[in-house]
Amino acid sequence: MHGKKPSLGEQNEEIVDSYFKKRGWAVDKLDRPGRAPLAKAADRVISHNGYRFLCEVKTITSARADMPYTPVRYFEEMRARRQAQLEKWMEGHPDSRLIMTREQHEFVFGDHGEFRKRHQRKSRNTQRYFEEFIKRLEARLLESSIGNLPYRITLHSDDLYSPNDKEFDSLSKWFEAEIRRIHRGEPSFHWKIVRKWPASSGWYCAFYLIHRRRDETDRDRKVQVMVIGPTKASKLKLDGPCYGTYNLDRIEGNVRRASTQLASSASELQNEKIPRLVILAFAGGLSLEWWPQGFEEDLAWLLERYPKLSALAILDFALAVPPVPRFIVYHSSWLRDVESLHPKAFSDNRSSQFRYVDGNWQLQ
Predict the structure, then answer these.
(1) Are 217 and 266 contained in the same domain?
(2) 1 domain residue, yes or no
(3) How far apart are CA 192 and CA 224, in angstroms?
(4) For residues 282 and 88, is the Cβ–Cβ distance under 8 A?
C-alpha cells in the first residue's frame, strides 16, 4: 500500500534536511513523530563540528496578492504620495486653481478617521482566491455546451481579481458564446488572431473587462484571455497563472509564528542565545530571477521587527537538471541577545548571503 503523499511543506522540509546532510551537517528534528513534542517547537537543530543553530522552515501558500499588505496601509501610502504631489504642484503654481472632483478631494484631503474606516472594509485579492476562481470557472465551462471542445484557455491577471457571482456568470456566458463562435470559424471582433500557417491551430487573444471601477480607490479589472485551438485534447482546458506582487501579510504571519517557535525551542534547550534561522519556501516559486520590487526592503523590515531572528533565507533552485536547491540568505543587523548565524551554514558556492549596511543589502 502506498503511503500518503507528502504535503508541499513536508517536501520543502525534506529538501532543507537533505541539503544540510549532503554537506556533512547533522539535522536533529525536534518535533518528529514519537518524540515528546515541545510546545510550539521549531522544526530542527542543525549542527556541525560543535556549532549549531535552530531552523524553522515555512512554506508560504497564497504567496501573491494585488497589494503587499492591508488595504488601509496601502491606501494611506497612496494618499500620502498624492498629497505630496499636489502640495508640490500648488507651490509651483501659486496663482492657479486646483480643480478636483468631490470624490478625488475626499480621497486626498478628507477626514483621516473616516478614510481609515472606509478602507478597513476593503479586501485584497490573493492567490488563494484567484486559484479557487479559476477552478470554479473551469468546472462551470466543462459542464457547459463548450466543455467537450478541444481548446485551451489561459487567463492572465496582474491583480488576481476574483469576480463576484454576477461578474462570474457574465464571464462564463461570454466564454460559451465566444468559444462556440471560434469553433464555427466565426470569431468575433474581440479577438486578435495569430496562425503560424493556414491549417494550424489558432492563437486567439482578447481582453475582457471583468469588473468596472466604482470609486476613487477602485479601478477597472481586466483579464487577458488566450485561447489556443483546436488542440488534440478531448475536452476544454483552462488555467490561470498567478502574477501580482508578493503577499507581505502572509509572509509576516509565518515569520511571526516561526519566531515564537524558535524562542520556545531555545528555552527548552536552555540556550537563549542560540542562532535562529527561518527558511521561507514559496508555493509556486518566488525565484531570484523574479524578485518583486520592494521585497528586500520588507525583509529588512521583518528582521528589524523580529530582533531575535539571526537570519531569513529564501529557498530557491539553481537552473540545473534536476534542480539544485540554493538559498538567498539575509543576515540580521538588528539582533537582540541572540547570536548571529555563521556564514559557513550556507557556504556551498551557489547560495548568496547579504547583510544590511548603511541602508542597503550588501553581499557578504
Answers:
(1) no
(2) no
(3) 11
(4) no
Check whether residue 148 and residue 235 sit in a common domain. yes
With respect to residue 48, please indicate whether it lies within any of the assigned structural domains: yes
Buried b (16+ CB within 10 A) or exposed e, 116-155: eebbeeeebbbbbbbbebbeebbebbeebebeebbbbbbb
CA angle 306, 295, 355 (to 5 degrees): 60
Can you give the pTM of this predicted structure? 0.69
Q: What is the pLDDT of residues 27-75, one digit of tens each?
A: 998 754 544 444 456 679 999 999 999 999 999 887 777 766 666 666 6
DSSP 93-116: -TTS-----HHHHHHHHS-HHHHH
> Are 196 and 111 contained in the same domain?
no
Number of residues in the chain: 364
Residue among 202, 211, 209 at smallest CA distance from 184: 202
Q: Domain boundary residue among 189, 224, 244?
A: 244
Domain that holds residue 171: 127-244
| In contact, 234 and 54? CB cutoff 8 Å | no
309 Cβ contact partners less than 8 Å away, ≥ 6 residues apart: 255, 258, 259, 262, 276, 277, 278, 302, 303, 332, 338
Q: How far is CA 135 from CA 64, 142, 154, in A?
A: 17, 11, 12
Specify burial of residue 44 (Cβ count, 10 A radius: 0-12, 13-18, 19+): buried
**Measured between alpha carbons, how far is 10 from 31 in angstroms, rounded to an integer?**
13
Pairwise CA distance, residues 188 & 196, whole Å: 20
Grid cell listed for 339: 547570536
- Domain ends where: 193, 210, 244? 244
